[in-house]
Input
Amino acid sequence: MTDSNQEYIVISGARENNLKEVSLRIPKRKITIFTGVSGSGKSSIVFDTIAAESTRLLNENFSMFVRNFLPRVPQPDADAIENLSMAVIVDQKRLGGGSHSTMGTITDISPILRLLFSRAGQPHVGPAHMFSFNDPQGMCPECNGLGRSLVVDMKMAIDMSKSIKEGAILLPDYKANSFDLSMLIESGTFDIDKKLSDYSKDELNELLYGKARKVEVQFMSKAMNVTVEGCIEKFTNKYIRRDIKTMSERTQKAVMPYIIEGVCSSCHGARLSQATLSSKINGYNIADLAAMEVGQLIRVVREIDSPVAASIIKALTDRLQHLVDIGLDYLTLDRETDTLSGGESQRVKMVKHLSGSLVDVTYIFDEPSVGLHPRDVHRLNELLLKLRDKGNTVIVVEHDPDVIKVADHIVDVGPLAGSRGGNIVFEGSFPGLLQSGTLTGDHMKRPLQLKQACRQPNGKLSINNATLHNLNNVSVDIPTSVLTVVTGVAGSGKSTLINDVFLSSHTDAIVIDQSAIGVSSRSNPATYTGIMDDVRKAFASANKVNQGLFSFNSKGACENCGGQGVISIDLSFLDSVDLPCEVCGGRRFKEEVLVYKLNGKSIADVLEMTVEQALEFFELKEVVRKLQALSDVGLTYITLGQPMSTLSGGECQRIKLASELHKKGSIYVMDEPTTGLHMSDIGHLLEIMNRLVDAGNTVIVIEHNLEVISQADWLIDMGPDGGSKGGQVVFEGTPTDIIHAERSITGKYLRS
Ligand code: ADP
Ligand code: ADP
Ligand code: ZN
Ligand code: ZN
Output
């Protein structure tokens, strides 16, 4: 007889962070979803207890010798954790890696594509590694496989609104009365009175890039032969293809303003040598395929008829299908991974695991629905189900009701945040959750209300003819003094429109995104918001000592850890690990400093207070205002001294929001501010946005969350689909109007 406990991961008496002796059983080879308000303790169970113990067990498998080099991961604070299998954590940390890391390399699809060309490419050029831009034989010699090199900055070099005579060519060699300009005019090959914008494509090409040729010109009543060459081509040959360091300093100074880093002119960004690029399959070379959107690529690969490569084609289409399944069909294999968003990064990592052959693994996901439009959430669900059906245990921290619905088992953590959380308030099925009476259960039952009384704008900010990435000549007005929500499926062009195009001409806008606020490893909510400065002053004047003592990068700091409270251990082949400082026990200060008190509390006591406790403790006006702002964005539960690095992307975003709240008359741009927020916290966030608008600000939010969308004054819906099938504005108007908009996918989901 088997012990039925073998079918569960069993946790008893877990006490990490705010957990109150949590005991629970997580079914193996099933999908379990953890939900609950932000700060209730989901991560403390899933990451700090389950994942931490799994890592510790994994390390114990190594020999004593190897273990000496591994960090001693402390045992999680719990009575027992049993039946764990190896855990793989798929989080939203962005994929770094520089320009040599692409979608193709990170998903292991590139090697298969290279193998395909080495078997089926015509002409047959050689072994598979020849097709790699990381290989000396395969890489473009001009840019060393980077795809980018120095090129002429066309904005600086050419003024399309002028004629040649009016000075359309701005390059230094073509100044008024210069030899080059005189020759160009005398040669009679171009219309010197026509604006360049009126030139035909061929004429312009000849003027800019025409190959050198001899022309007879009349100069000072004598016939002479001169060489005419496209002005950009000439500049490139004369200054860029030569080693710039061999030129005089004066020349360097004169030409540098016209040179920028751009797409390599030899391989046009393909990164590969000409020999490699000449090998083709069905008319496409390997760079053509890498630059194709995955959705189209999979069709092209399926059409390849090559018996010798049949198994390679199968392996390739299987992997590409995973990318399509997870809603990344709008990406290309040559896309550099450091340009992917957090949600996209997480989904790319997921694909890597789906193609792998590991079984009986515990997969842990952190809000995988981030960045996904309601239309695409079902694809994520299918992937989670696939992982489970391969025999794995799937644990997901998630707030999205459409994901929660597919769970085999739901754990609701609460009832509230911080010290008022840390309990399991519900365990069971989805119908059970709806009846449970918990915050989560109750919010799931609430119907969506569409905003009726939308605010009237007092002006507009225009975007004209935007063409970056997939934008299809987009012109759109953003109304001022209202709440505008920009929606659309992933890859439709929301971030490109707002973060890249709009913000490039509105640099005064206040941007609140999820990027980590890692100013320094010492920063925490108190230092970031400026509360620390006021607190130090208060301690100094209460004790009649220098305020510098109370700073943890001063002489008051613990000498062992330099005021960090932790000792960071760097390992070349693993992430670095922080262990608590043995001297100060994580309190960061010397004993001499801790004897100074303010109303009975030491500086370390203050840093251990939650925002909520600090609000009760302090009466200083400035401190209270800043604490209130943190509380307003739902961060009552964080402690003042909690290192910024322990905060999630969503929490970072809300700290930024809190410290910008008091500015008036500004433009605010927020990128998915509901990330990490439980349904019951979203009402709170909306209140803050509305307060900002009521104070005269313009608020622009990129968001998929239907509750936020339904409460906008104005919606801009991008689409209709992702990538090349997107890039248009499909709807502009109010929430009550979008549900009638035929082309809007967002409208369709709001309706249902
Ligand atoms: P959730 O995942 O539900 O948002 P967490 O498990 O992250 O909640 O947090 C639960 C509580 O524990 C919160 O009060 C949080 O501030 C606190 N906490 C989380 N991580 C740390 C940490 N590294 N140090 C101190 N407190 C922490
Ligand atoms: P959304 O914000 O709606 O998810 P994005 O603006 O991120 O969409 O993407 C729109 C299109 O532009 C997609 O096809 C995407 O792959 C492409 N894109 C976005 N950022 C980059 C980049 N840095 N380099 C190349 N293509 C990009
Ligand atoms: Zn090149
Ligand atoms: Zn210390």
The two ends are 49 Å apart (CA to CA). DSSP finds 30 helices and 25 strands in the chain. The chain has five domains: 8-94+341-420, 103-147+267-326, 149-263, 448-509+666-751, 525-655.
